[in-house]
Amino acid sequence: MTHHFARRLLLAALGLCAPGLAGCAAFSPDSGMSAVSDLTSQTIHKDVAFVRSPEGAEAANGTVRRLLSRTLNMDAAVQIALLNNRGLQAAYNELALAETDLVEQSLPPPPVFSISRISGNGASEIERQMVGDILALATLPFRSDIARERFRQAQLRAALATLRLAADVRRAHVRAVAANEMVALLTDAKATAESTAQLAVKLGETGSLNKLDQAREQVFYAETTADLAAARQMATSGRERLARLMGLWDDGLDFRLPNQLPPLPRRPQALPSIEADAVAHRIDLQIARLELTALAKSLNLTEATRFVTLLDLAGISRRTQDPEGAPFRERGFDVQFQIPIFDGGEVRVRQAAETYNLAFNRLTERAVNVRSEARDAYRAYRSTYDIASHYQREIVPLRKIITEEMQLRFSSMQVDIFALLTEARQRLASLRGAIDAKQSYFLAQSELQTVVNGGGSPASGGDNPTTIAAAAPAEGGH
To answer: Is the pLDDT of residue 35 over 80?
Structure first.
């Protein structure tokens, strides 16, 4: 009877978890990359690839070589990085590892088999046991649901890593091109300053120019030389950073960048619903929402198993050999269960509840911050556009008119060469300001895209999963 009772109990437990067994997860063909690809194509309109075979690597390398053969604009640089950056590929490896956790959590716990043999004085006893964790089997559907939420979070984290890399590439490309433009401007300015300094020395030797004016021309040449050296170093560093983000090795390091930043658009974007768009689309917020859902399910599981945290059922078969009698066989079962008698499971329930509340407050904080970041990013975008547009439409054209008028007056000997050179220095300052203003605009434009879709620097408690100590009732307890 006892053997039949143990068998019925085991079958009942298996029947209880049958829906979970029927819904066991299996490995997907692409390790969950379809969700990452969909999110990426919707936000930045670029292709991603998880390179896992020689054929895939060759296809990605072919695309990279084709893009590197042309002058590298921002979109091409982002696409190269998404195909060639090994750090991003490592993030996709983490997604594949997360899928293994999903499959593992959807499978029933394996039974434990044990065999023992005891002999002495001619008698022997052989005992066999098969032990199964009934509680883990019964809670398998709930655990599988939680694992699916975790895997969905892992997919979003992979998409977030993709967007962060794209944002970093956009910023690096803007800075590298702006540095090249500044180098070209200062190279011309240095040539002019050098000619002026040489002229000043000759005039000083003839007594036509005093030491004060000589020093002024010479220091302008010296300062321009120092500024050019600094600009060249900045351009070199910017190029190297862009090469690192694109994952370039020896091949491709001679890529060509545009000589200058693209022109400003005719008018800035009008985004009246930017706060709502950011809250709806930000991937870090989606991760936090999924975390809250998973914790809610974990809390329900913890409350359901608070009074029994371990339930093992063992089927026992024992064969005894006695020299004074015929051998005989015994069968039976053994049940082990763990009850938190000292706290009634209150500690685990309290831990789960407070962990849920922590995640809820973090999500609320992040939502508030996202709205503020969206407003601030849009204001910065509009402000930098207005400043860059002011340089482009007002300051630079006026400086050009002044330079042309000064040249006409110099030709008619109404002003001397030093007045012309003074104006050249002032024009140089305006042109440098125009380059800086345009760079600030394109950086603000990239930041605006990042704020709406995600991909900025990780915030404290923003997208890191909150673990729950009491989420595994079959493994812990008092």
So the answer is: yes
pLDDT at 289 over 70: yes
What is the rounded distance in angstroms from the CA atom of residue 246 to the CA atom of residue 223? 34
Residue 459 has pLDDT above 50, yes or no: no
Residues 6 or more apart whose CB falls under 8 angstroms from that of 115 comprise 126, 127, 128, 129
Given the structure tokens 């547009």, which residue do they identify? 389
User: How many Cβ atoms are within 10 Å of 157's Cβ, its own excluded?
Assistant: 21
Name the phi and psi angles at 392, rounded to 5: -70, -35
Q: C-alpha angle with apex 372: 366 to 378, nearest 5 degrees?
A: 130
Q: Other CB atoms closer than 10 Å to residue 330's CB: what's the count? A: 13
Rounded to an integer, what distance in angstroms lies between the CA atom of residue 82 and that of residue 164? Answer: 10
Q: Under a CB-based contact definition with an 8 Å cutoff, are residues 281 and 452 in contact?
A: yes
Question: pLDDT by residue (tens digit) across 241-277?
Answer: 999 999 998 777 889 999 999 999 999 988 888 888 8
Residues in the chain: 478
**Alpha carbon separation from 472 to 111, 145, 311, 337 (Å, rounded):** 18, 13, 13, 15
Angle at 408 between CA 403 and CA 409, to 5 degrees: 95
CA dihedral sign of residues 141, 143, 145, 151: negative
Mean confidence (pLDDT) of the chain = 79
Residue 371 near residue 278 (C-beta atoms within 8 A):
yes
Alpha-carbon distance values, 406 to 145, 189, 419 (Å) = 77, 17, 8
3-state secondary structure the chain: CHHHHHHHHHHHHHHHCHHHHHCCCCCCCCCCHHHHHHHHHHHCCCCCCCCCCHHHHHHHHHHHHHHHCCCCCHHHHHHHHHHHCHHHHHHHHHHHHHHHHHHHHCCCCCCEEEEEEEEECCEEEEEEEEEEEHHHHHCHHHHHHHHHHHHHHHHHHHHHHHHHHHHHHHHHHHHHHHHHHHHHHHHHHHHHHHHHHHHHHHHHHHCCCCHHHHHHHHHHHHHHHHHHHHHHHHHHHHHHHHHHHCCCCCCCCCCCCCCCCCCCCCCCCCCCCHHHHHHHHCHHHHHHHHHHHHHHHHHHHHHHCCCCCEEEEEEEEEEEECCCCCCEEEEEEEEEEECCCCCCCHHHHHHHHHHHHHHHHHHHHHHHHHHHHHHHHHHHHHHHHHHHHHHHHHHHHHHHHHHHHHHHHHHCCCCCHHHHHHHHHHHHHHHHHHHHHHHHHHHHHHHHHHHHHCCCCCCCCCCCCCCCCCCCCCCCCC
Of residues 392 and 298, the one with the higher pLDDT is 392
Distance CA 81, CA 455 (A): 15
